[in-house]
Amino acid sequence: MPLIVAGSVALDDLATPFGERKNLLGGSAVHAGVSASFFTPVKLVGVVGEDFPREHVDFLKQRKIDIEGLKVIKGKTFHWEGYYEYDMNQAHTVKTDLNVLSQFDPELPESYRKSKYVFLANLDPELQLRILDQVAAPKLVVADTMNYWIENKKDALEEVVRRSDIMLFNDTEAREFTKVPNLIVAAKKILDMGAKNVIIKKGEHGALLFSKDLHFSAPSFPQEDLIDPTGAGDSFAGGLIGYLAKCGGTRTEDLKKAIIIGSVMASFNVEDFSLDSLRKLRNDQITKRYSMFRRFVEFEELPDNYI
Amino acid sequence: MPLIVAGSVALDDLATPFGERKNLLGGSAVHAGVSASFFTPVKLVGVVGEDFPREHVDFLKQRKIDIEGLKVIKGKTFHWEGYYEYDMNQAHTVKTDLNVLSQFDPELPESYRKSKYVFLANLDPELQLRILDQVAAPKLVVADTMNYWIENKKDALEEVVRRSDIMLFNDTEAREFTKVPNLIVAAKKILDMGAKNVIIKKGEHGALLFSKDLHFSAPSFPQEDLIDPTGAGDSFAGGLIGYLAKCGGTRTEDLKKAIIIGSVMASFNVEDFSLDSLRKLRNDQITKRYSMFRRFVEFEELPDNYI
Questions:
Q1: Is B19 domain-assigned?
Q2: Is the pTM of this model over 0.80?
Q3: Chain A partners of B88 at a C-beta cutoff of 8 Å?
Q4: pLDDT tens digits for range A234-244
Q5: A-proximal residues of B, 231-270, CB under 8 Å
Q6: Fewer CB atoms near the end CB (10 Å): N or C, chain A?
């Protein structure tokens, strides 16, 4: 089933302990869209400037991503400059140039509007809502955000939470959004606000799923080759909703599998700069790593009356 | 099978957002010993002063803990004073009075020396080694430590690591001990130093097991009622080795079950001050929560050739 992925498209400059790179392909919609494209047809919504390199457009097309909804407007593409220190857990922003993103007025092509699956990647929540309003009858809405919107557009973000089937936060954001230090209590508060499911992304510590009747804990991949964490959360989300769009399911068991698929995609994403790892990724590597995730968490039941 | 638990016995003063308590029963050997006592006979090794309340001795006896190895010497019992802020993830020490612990010269009673299972709870690593030297033929040695010994007794601690079947660190300690920020790489470095297995305790994020051929990720319990985290790591370790001593096993499957049992015991330990939650704990609550842990991580395999 076709999936709308809306968010930022960026050119990134970044430095990690493993090297420096300039003008890398990035942005929340790109990491999520490419990740999702392994599972389902993707319809991208975003904006770039006239400087956006042809080769990146070609790469998106090669991934069979529909770019009718990718506007090219006068000016420069959104640009993020940042670095990671040796522990790699925290991105440090040097500079954010919104450029054309500041004038983004999303208008979905006709061919997008009947899509049932929608991923609202990190973006101004007012834009997320404007995009969602243009989808006739969404079946599954997944939304992501970041600390900036929590601090500056809380009301619009709360509306996004209310309208999402799966709301994504990282652990710090969930605490900041709810003003509750306990993650479990924070997640329940987000459910109370109207999200049907909440996923708390914990980076190197995996991810937690909460819904009314369910708690699921996904492990992280024991990552020795962590080269560039940029886009990890977006590729997680792309794998998650890409898988759900593929199988058309919203059963609990589908959701759990989707979270593991998301974790698998994120684990590949961080093994090289930008999208370079996903460029080379094969389907059999995905299914193999999925099985590894199962082995990481499997343990036997206790015998009856054991203690 | 009888199990030696050696470590500190303490009287704690602490403050959490849920209240203040003075002269609480605490210490690494007490939290670990009481937790282990749900599974196997425990032989305690430690030292207290003449001020150690009779009621605490009675409680240990009631848990069928052998206290022949608990020395009472002239002076005051080891005393820790600390507090937790609202996020509860970090203990802040106000004062540590070693008192009689500074003169502790552990000498195992004859009846202890043939024990096969040994838990060296957090204690000066030189004392840990002196205790281990008195055990004739240990079958399974589990050891824990803390940042103070990493900073001040590195050589002795490295010897403990070499001689341990299962070495425990929390995530911060593992990074500090190995000077490696990546936890996976840090764990492998500890294995290279001679530990047969390493467990990285991550508090609210669960625990990771590493050995030469195995990686296992244990989830944490989604804890809403976190009242007092003191002793969480010790009750984890006590449940872990208590279970292994009970089943006599060292198979991979036993080890994984033991880590979940440890996680279950820690999850109960933190639900009230001091040992108060374990005082009331019943075996059926342990097995019930164990099953909950399984449900938190279970997910289905992907169908063949799915992607």
A1: yes
A2: yes
A3: 181-182
A4: 999 999 999 99
A5: 253, 256-257, 259-260
A6: N
